[in-house]
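Example (one chain per record):
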Amino acid sequence: MPDKYAGTAVYSLTATLAPFGLITRGGFHPGPADSVPGDPRTVLLVGNAGPAMWRAFQGSGMGSLDAWVRDAVDRAAAICGAEPLYPFDGPPFLPFQRWAQRAAPVHPSPIGVLIHPDYGLWHAWRAALAFADRLDLPAPQERPSPCATCAVKPCLATCPVGAFTRAGYNVPACTAHIDRPSGTDCLLEGCRARRACPVGTEWRYVPAQAEFHMRAFRRA
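Predicted structure:
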């Protein structure tokens, strides 16, 4: 493998992924409980924050975001000598949400989406790269959840059909709402509960990106 240290690996990944609007999202040294396929000694996560990925995807002319991500990350994996892993391959599906909490300072939010202290709810994980070597990684960032000091929690009070409560997420109520004319705002602009979060608003997805993901959610 050409990269001996995480700094070099991250540099190579950053340069390769930048034209796609994708970024490295931290890493970890996996153990048996992490359920990483094979026997890698280091995992680096790849994802997006804000609308940069969307703009690159739109300019590609490809219709499938998953296929577009696979093309980009496969290139990066070949350059870095890593094995690419994807959250959309399955079932069984890989535990990307658990890996994310190992690799980055993210926490479950009241509406279920992992919240980042800077990006808020406007980010995602698209792939992972598994390395045979144990790369040097920086110490994990210890940053508290912004939800812990959010007294109002507007995310729980904004949904027009009350789909989000402290008890969980009522998916049927949400999907029924976005199927009705009264749910057009949520469908075209993105989830109101997500938009109500005051953290990371400068990273908010543009409307076309939000609509794309809402329609994909509805199909699923």
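Caption: Residues 146-219 form one domain.
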